[in-house]
Amino acid sequence: MSKKIIVSKKSFSKYKTITEAIQKAIPGTKIIIEPGIYKENIVIDKRVELLGNGPVNEIVVTSENSLRFLCRQSRQLFVE
């Protein structure tokens, strides 16, 4: 059974950023992203699955520069 991590901007959430969730994840972890605006550059350096849990227009990833996602050590990237 794969591990799951939930990312949420809500005050009770353990993980408030996608980056923090990826850093704490082990390979094969499913990272569930709740609605919110996530202002960060995301480096994916292990096999994880990113899943949005809400309307696509309510889960926003933005950054101050043009880089939002950087994949290392991976041949495929699937974002759902």
Question: How would you concisely characterize the structure shown here?
Answer:
By secondary structure, this protein is mostly beta strands.
Describe this structure in words.
The mean pLDDT is 85. The protein has one helix and seven strands. Strand 1, helix 1 and strand 2 form a beta-alpha-beta unit. The protein has a three-stranded parallel beta sheet with strand order 1-2-5, with helices on one face. Strands 3-6 form a two-stranded parallel sheet. A two-stranded parallel sheet has the order 4-7. The longest helix has 7 residues. The protein has one domain. It is mainly beta. It comes from Paenactinomyces guangxiensis. InterPro entries: Pectin_lyas_fold (IPR012334), Pectin_lyase_fold/virulence (IPR011050). This is Pectinesterase.
Layout of helices and strands, plus pairs?
Elements lengths: L3 E4 L10 H7 L4 E5 L2 E4 L2 E3 L3 E5 L6 E4 L6 E3 L9
Parallel strand pairs: 1-2, 2-5, 3-6, 4-7
The unreliable regions are none
CA radius of gyration: 12 Å
Shape: globular
Classification by helices and strands: mainly beta
The helix-strand sequence is EHEEEEEE
* Strand residue percentage: 35-45%
Strand order of the largest sheet: 1-2-5
Major beta-sheet overview: 3 strands, parallel
Average of the residue pLDDT scores:
85
How many strand units?
7
Total individual domains? 1
Residues in helix, %: under 10%
Distance between the ends: 19 Å
Number of helices: 1
Protein name: Pectinesterase
Organism: Paenactinomyces guangxiensis
